[in-house]
């Protein structure tokens, strides 16, 4: 059995976006496998609750923290990162964690990586470098600092965890990360659904696209190729949710 800490700026039920839901699902599955799991996230005040075997620690943000007079956006990022580290410290007793897992998004594990002596794994998502490339623009002055924070988070990681090989490859290229850093790909998923009744043979093909319709998700590219695809394959139906 391992003692594992998952960090996240947000967590259900207060937030149900992608990272929050991934943290929630992962925590529940790790508990099912027999591990001791703690989640450190932000909250309006400091408290801890046990939810289905997962210990959820919420830590408040000190919005008075000032790291940069010139770039207020950096203050917000680092204040949240500091709050997560403060929450982590409150969970430590005589036993440290085998693994601390933090998302790269917003460099939220940056402060923890500076002060926590244990192993910190960084879970990779869309980076600021990727967003800038998608929109075809150069970074502003404040964004350059955010890019540096992301780079430092990657460089100081004990390991990198990605959802796909393409995510891992693009981040290593964008930030010139040392390829000696241990890295793994873990495909996201959900528990298998009960086997549905066998479908009757038919000539139709149905495709389902689930997610926000935005440039970062590749929606414009899909819309670009769909007309020709539908013309070539009239049996195809594409549903968006």
Choose one word for the global shape: globular
First-last Cα distance? 39 Å
Strand element count: 10
The averaged pLDDT comes out at: 90
Q: Which regions have little confidence, pLDDT < 50, spanning 5+ residues?
A: none
Total helical elements: 7
Order of helices and strands: EHEEEHEHEHHEHEEHE
Structural class computed from helices and strand pairing? alpha/beta
* Percent of sequence in beta strands: 15-25%
Q: How many whole angstroms does the radius of gyration measure?
A: 21 Å
Task: Please summarize the sheet with the most strands.
Answer: 8 strands, mixed
Walk across the major sheet and give the strand order: 3-4-2-1-5-6-7-8
Helix content: 25-40%
Describe this structure in words.
Strands 3-4-2-1-5-6-7-8 form an 8-stranded mixed β-sheet. The chain has a two-stranded parallel sheet with strand order 9-10. The protein starts with a strand and ends with a strand. The radius of gyration is 21 Å and the shape is globular. Helices cover 37% and strands 20% of the residues. The protein contains 7 helices and 10 strands. By secondary structure, the protein is α/β, with parallel strands linked by helices. Helix 7 links the parallel strand 9 and strand 10.
